[in-house]
Amino acid sequence: MVAALSSSRPAERLLETAGRLFPLQGIRAVGIDQILSEAGVAKASLYQAFGSKDALVVAYLERQDAADRAVYRAAVTGLADPVDRVLVSFDLAMAAARRRSYRGCLFLNAATEFPDPDHPVAEAVEAHRVWVRARWAEALAGRGAGRTDLVERLQVLYDGGVAGTKASRSAAPIALAREMARELLAG
């Protein structure tokens, strides 16, 4: 794997390696030595590029957040129906669950491993979650007047669905959560 990464900059190789290892093994289970070895970089490169493993984790989450935003923007392009714009998040989560062999949501996994809400990793997770909820609120603007809890209910359905995929090793919980969200939005 190192040979395939050898042409990129050390910081990029570290992020690519983190992006491969963290979802498979867990963030805290992956040691710095493993990251350095598989990325083919020196410890000084990690500290020069990121300063710490925690900062690498934040960069990894920020990279995933940017990727998720881009995929979502592309997926909703041309969708006028507000319900469809919300439900596409569930569709994307189902595809990601399959692609990642049902290892759970990268952000929920990170939140579990870094429970301190003031930790930079928890802050990166929350920034992503705020963005998701803002997209749903934006899509539903004008719908559900007086239903200030609608987005929060969607978040619970979404979180339950993506967490359920990890336990069941199946996309079925997200599919069920999607159907429940559709019913909620129809009411």
TrEMBL record:
Q: Does the keyword Transmembrane apply?
A: no
Record-annotated DNA-binding residue ranges: 31-50
Q: What domain of life is recorded for the organism?
A: Bacteria
HTH tetR-type domain spans which residues? 8-68
* Signal sequence segment: none
Protein name, per record: Transcriptional regulator, TetR family protein
Is Mitochondrion tagged as a keyword? Answer: no
Q: Which GO terms describe its molecular function?
A: DNA binding
Please provide the record's keywords in A-Z order. Answer: DNA-binding, Transcription, Transcription regulation
Q: Name one Pfam family in it.
A: TetR_N
